[in-house]
Please model this.
Amino acid sequence: MNSPTRTLLVAMSLTVTAAALDQAEAPAGAQSEVRARLAFDVAKRFFRNDNHASAIERLEAFVLLYPDSTLKPEAVLLGNQARFQLGQFEGMVTELQAGLSTAGTWSDRYLFWIGEAQFALGQFAKAAEAYGLLIENYPESARALEAALGQAQAYYQLDELKQLIATLEPADGPFQKSANATPTAELVIDGRLLLANAYFELKELGAARLLLENLSDEGLSPERFWQKYHLLASVYLVEKSLDQALSGATNLVQLARGIADPIFTARSADFHGDVLLALKKPDDAISVYEQNLTTNVPVDWRRSALLKISNVYVEGNRLSNAVQRLERFFIQHPNDPATGLSHMTLGELRLRQFYLLPEAGKPKSTNLLSEAIGHFDVVLQSGSDKDLLGKSWAGRGWALWEWGTLSGRAFQIKAAGDAFTNAVQELPRSREQAVAQFKVADCLFEGSEHASAISNYWAAINITTNTVGRDDRLVDRALYQIVRSGVFRLDLPSAGQAVSKLLEWFPNSYYSDRSMLLYGQSLNRQGKPSEARE
Model:
């Protein structure tokens, strides 16, 4: 926003300019409107020349100088369109909403740009509401089609796919009216692709396929042509029409070569590999995924390729192949942004190799745990891959836990607890976070910190029951551990509370029986045999 002093100076400049240009004799009111029009045209010229900062200055000055002008609503609108180009979204919403009641014939455009700004701010529910008001109140607006598409895109971001369909499907709605009138318009094509994608994600494959097959290739840009046939091939893949999916995948590879954006080439290779995997050709799939490990491929797709190659090897019980491929990647590309993922995955593979060993061989194979910790530490010390930190802390915790369990060294168990604590902080609400919280409690239990262990077991139960869906195995075991902790520290109320929950939720489980026995024995030792018999 410009300073009031600067705005005032610009306003004075506009006054001088308008007065100099106003040579005609006219009544005072007419002269004022002529001067306003001249000043507005000067400001508007800056907007049309994409000089957005100067346009904002002059349009703000115009509003200050001519508050009663009939041109004021348009001036406010243009100033905020200029703000949109400069990324000043929050100021836009505030000013346009304040001026909406006096916008007159510009009201539909005010609503449209309110929606655009809210969408840019990630306020998708509010954006959908603004677009909806435009469609409802101004169905014949020149912006109605864009508003319908904007509302549909907002619903997509909110994962409200049925609402998206309800926006674009009605025959009397702005989208279908435009689709019938101008079927090859880019906005119409974008809407049809979005609608087909919504049906696809809802598993309404017949509706998605019908929309795509009826979408003419005429007028499609190379990118939209690719999008149409990628989505159609995806439908074939889910329908298990694998020959058609494979034909589509190979065509996508060819189509992507005519598109400058490297993401299309990367997505084509990724999809081709997925189809080959569905055809039970894992080695062919790996060869195709390998194409996405070159340095000119966007980093997110390199990461995806690494994960998919590793998963194919792991599912085929070829862990050593997975390890070798990942090691080769970060040796060949030591500074590649995807090396963090390769280190984390290698850490997880080393842990998996350790768990596959017979119990008798584990004490002699702690080198696998050491290597796993080393890989996790590369990710943690770098700190650049924020999305990998939670899993890397959890992996480090598991490696230290297993090592400490084998060695009996308390410092390793404590270090494991610290790692799991960090994992809880970095992981999103998920089963992984609940497990990490459970392991924090386990580490405290092993360190005889039973009061803290109890609170952390309850925290793990809270995560899995209130946020991500109850994991009965984790809850059952956590309640048993609370009973054990309560018995150890003679905290019988805590133990009794856990026993009650076990009997309520898992009356026939192994841990319920064990907990009742432990709790009863503890009551007997405390001289409360009658309570033990209840």
Residues 8-12, 20-27 have pLDDT under 50 and may be disordered. The domain at 447-534 is CATH 1.25.40.10 (Serine Threonine Protein Phosphatase 5, Tetratricopeptide repeat). Residues 386-407 form the longest helix (22 residues). The CA atoms of residues 525 and 532 lie 10 Å apart.
